[in-house]
Amino acid sequence: MSTVRHLVMATVVAFLLDASAHAAAPFFEGKSVRIVVGFSAGGGFDTYSRLIARHLGEHIPGKPTVLVENMVGAASLIAANHLYKVAKPDGLTIGNFHGNQLLNQVLGRQGIEFDARKFEHLGVPVQDSLACALSKASGITTFDKLRTAKIAVKFGGVAPGDATYNTAAILKEALTLPIQLVSGYKGTAEIRLAAESGEVAGGCWQWESIKSTWRRALDGGEVTVVLQANPKPHPELVNVPNAIDFAKTGEARQLIKGGLHDPAAITRIYVLPPGTPKERAQTLRRAFADTMKDPAFLADAKKSNLDIDPLTGEELERLVSGLFKLDAGVVKRLREILK
């Protein structure tokens, strides 16, 4: 009897999902879905979004065209605010901005015009690992050379809220490193160019992006990863020093964990405007999850040297909720560092 009941329930669930897909098809059919990326073309966020755009439409009922639009500014805050306040909540606009902007809301930073808990969360394509890569020309080719440098080493950054800024700023304070943060770049593509021209030594951001977009320089020895900032060493960076191992105080360890480790998992968030009809939000959430498992998508990611380690919309939602439960003392100190 129990087996029959389970079979009936499974059939009902399958029927409801199929009915939902058929209901969504007329809406999405013949339309275009935009992914609004908060960073410039050619950077890591843009690269992941264009990869997703090539495959997502195949998993949305009605198979709409999926386009990428770059909306650059303030470490993707402009894009985040636009998605929350301006974008029509009809399921045709997806936002991709830096997850550290959610941390900025927790820290009470100015300029935040959204409540992260009210977005419709689709998922994350990869849980990021943080690394600091510097040019050979800078002369800083090891962590020892960095921490013993007599002159401040210039690290490129975008703005508070972006990994390039937050990672360098937190590591500077937590590990007492001689870092001079040069901010104002539009994205990691510009920071790479600045490092190659000698304007800065390099910077810190997601290893998943560095190894893809800076591959030739890494392979040629023109760029070296001198430090990583991850809960445990990344399998591809086992010989690279890990920041948490050099934290000498409890506060330093908490800053690295709360300011870097925890937000890194949700760096590359994909969300919908609040108020998006639940049925369409669920359709896109399923489409996102299905895309992450699509063999053609995974093959394309491998060809582009992009890691895929996804979070579902439900998992992302839980992690976002957890950010708002950070220890008050850690929040206060992070607020001082990332001002």
Concise description?
The chain has 339 residues and is α/β, with parallel strands linked by helices. The chain has helices at residues 2-28, 44-56, 77-85, 100-107, 143-147, 163-174, 188-197, 207-213, 215-219, 250-264, 278-293, 295-303, 313-323, 328-337, and strands at residues 32-37, 65-70, 93-98, 120-124, 130-135, 153-156, 179-182, 202-206, 223-228, 268-272, 311-312.
List the helices and strands and how they pair.
Elements: H1 2-28, E1 32-37, H2 44-56, E2 65-70, H3 77-85, E3 93-98, H4 100-107, E4 120-124, E5 130-135, H5 143-147, E6 153-156, H6 163-174, E7 179-182, H7 188-197, E8 202-206, H8 207-213, H9 215-219, E9 223-228, H10 250-264, E10 268-272, H11 278-293, H12 295-303, E11 311-312, H13 313-323, H14 328-337
Helix pairs in contact: 2-12, 6-10, 10-14
Structure description:
By secondary structure, this protein is of the alpha/beta class. The protein has two domains: 2-127 and 265-327, Bordetella uptake gene, domain 1 (D-Maltodextrin-Binding Protein, domain 2, 3-Layer(aba) Sandwich); 130-263, D-Maltodextrin-Binding Protein, domain 2 (3-Layer(aba) Sandwich). The protein is 46% helix and 16% strand. It has 14 helices and eleven strands. The protein has helices at 2-28, 44-56, 77-85, 100-107, 143-147, 163-174, 188-197, 207-213, 215-219, 250-264, 278-293, 295-303, 313-323, 328-337; strands spanning 32-37, 65-70, 93-98, 120-124, 130-135, 153-156, 179-182, 202-206, 223-228, 268-272, 311-312. A six-stranded mixed β-sheet has the order 2-1-3-10-4-11, sandwiched between helices. Strands 8-5-9 form a three-stranded antiparallel β-sheet. Strands 6-7 form a two-stranded parallel ribbon. The model is unreliable at 12-17 (pLDDT under 50).
